[in-house]
Amino acid sequence: MEQLAETDGGTHGVAEMIFNILLGILGLGIVVFVHELGHFLAAKASGITVEAFSLGWGRVLFARTWKGTEYRISMLPIGGYCKMKGEELFKKAIDENQSSIPDEEGSLFSVSVWKRMLTYAAGPLFNFIFAVLVLSIIWFSGFKIQTYDNRIIMLSDYPRLFSQIDNPADAAGLRTGDRIVKVGSERIETYSDLQRVIARSPQKTLPISFIRNGTEIVSSISPELDLDTGAGRIGVAAWVDPVLDEVAEGRSAAAGGLRKGDKLVEANGVPVQHSLDLYIALADRPSTLNLTYERDGNRAETVIVPFYGEDGSIELGISFQTLTHNSPDLNIFQSIARGSSESIQTFVLTIKGVALLFSGVNVRKAVSGPVRITYLVGEVASQGFQRGIGSGLINLFRFLSLLSVALCFGNLLPIPALDGGFLVLSVVELIKGNSVSPKTFYRYQTIGFFIILVILFLTTFSDISYLFSN
Q1: Is 36 one of the annotated active-site residues of the chain?
Q2: pLDDT attached to residue 295
Q3: Which residue of 64, 120, 262, 313 is surrounded by the most CB atoms within 10 Å?
Q4: Distance between CA 206 and CA 198 in Å, rounded?
Q5: Domain that holds residue 345
Q6: How much is the pLDDT for 222?
Q7: Residue numbers in the chain where pLDDT is lower than 70
Q8: What distance in Å separates the CA atoms of residue 375 and residue 150, rounded to the nearest whole number?
Q9: Claim to verify: residue 278 and residue 412 sit in the same structural domain
Q10: Are 59 and 75 in contact (CB under 8 A)?
């Protein structure tokens, strides 16, 4: 019976991973395509000839030439590319040892330096505009968040489950059962609000207000830096009432007769007030779990057989009820303002996140490469689609907007071969009054490609380890 559950779980896990990756490729492709579209439109507006503009990479499946540009649909749906006139002239200048790149009409190097800078900057700019547009539409349309209440559990009260017992929440005087209502200047209505504020505030001291026995208490708290994620943490978990939301067919809980809406009361003699109490009863990995539960006002008992994964996970086939939080009703102008401020805030947080990499953060865990990002895009989307198409699309595009801002920032870094690196060359050209030599340009690109290849190699290795560990 246990072997059957393990085999079914493994097959389901592989299928889910493949689905997540396919969704992720599609989502990541949208963000990259928007970036290349920015370059394309700016090049056209600047008088630069775009020789080819492709949706996707790899083998060309369809091509049609219109007004000097070959529009392509390629096999791999991973973004696209924009091929501008000038690459051949650049190679020719190097081969012939020329001091400058020929300024043939329509070439990237024939237009003014300002037009080239606009073309380089247009990709990141379009990524930022995409994020603002998407977030504005989401806020205007409205959305629902599945979260938990703002009542908390102290992790230090559960040393058998959590090794770290000296947490910022303890220093702030918080206790299990407290309801956090304000952190800094922001009101806290849900556990998601608390996560958002704390995650972006590592190593800051913030005022915190919480309710205990009907009385509001004010203190201060300093979230510590989580070296594995680069985010802030204070050492609390959400108080999750032990009311079952979903009971998966064919799993342990369903075999024991549990149903959606049942409230767990006791597990192996341990009272269950919230979800963590259930996992305390499972801490010693018992072969059976004696449960007392309430259904329609009546108490009953059952025995279920937990399944334990090799990675230490516990599989009962249940989930607990969440709180549905509706976004506020905003008009079009309020939505645009909210979308813009959220995009700017994400950009600023991205800069701060890069700075935190020099604060002892575990880079292998905290930094994601293209493989893990692709998987995470798909995972976020598929979790949303489980609650409906609308929820799935909102989850997907909200994540893509954040990723688009990150791509905007990353491409503006002054690294050779990135847009930011080309902008640096353009600034040098403005200062000197003439363009850099083809050989200097070539060496600059070579260094950039080497840096990017090293980063890709390291992050991809880390990403693959992450996927296999999951």
Answers
A1: yes
A2: 92
A3: 120
A4: 9
A5: 22-49+85-143+331-470
A6: 94
A7: 1-21, 78-79, 87-88, 90-91, 99-100, 102, 311-312, 354-388, 452-453, 455-470
A8: 30
A9: no
A10: yes
Measured between alpha carbons, how far is 144 from 94 in angstroms, rounded to an integer? 57
Q: Could you identify the residue written with the tokens 């990403």?
A: 463
Do residues 357 and 367 make contact, with C-beta atoms less than 8 angstroms apart?
yes
What does pTM read for this prediction?
0.76
* Euclidean distance between CA atoms 97 and 104, whole angstroms: 17
- Amino acid letter, residue 69: T
Cβ neighbours for 218, distance < 8 A, ≥ 6 positions apart: 207, 208, 209
Distance CA 426, CA 102 (A): 17
DSSP 3-state of 66: strand
The single-letter code of the amino acid at 441 is F
Is the same domain home to 346 and 431?
yes
Sheet of 179-183, strand order: 186-187, 179-183, 206-212, 215-221
Catalytic residue among 6, 36, 216, 310: 36
Q: What is the count of structural domains for the chain?
A: 3
Q: What single-letter amino acid sits at 421?
A: G
Phi, psi (rounded to 5 degrees) for 134: -60, -50
Q: Does residue 67 lie within any of the structural domains? A: no
Close Cβ partners of 204 (under 8 Å, ≥ 6 residues apart): 222, 223, 232
DSSP 358-413: TTT--HHHH---HHHHHHHHHHHHHHHHTT-HHHHHHHHHHHHHHHHHHHHHHHHS
Reported residue count of the chain is 470
Structure confidence at residue 99 (pLDDT): 67
Phi, psi of 73 (to 5 degrees): -120, 120
Q: Which of left, alpha, beta for 316 (phi over 0: left; psi -120 to 50: alpha)? A: alpha
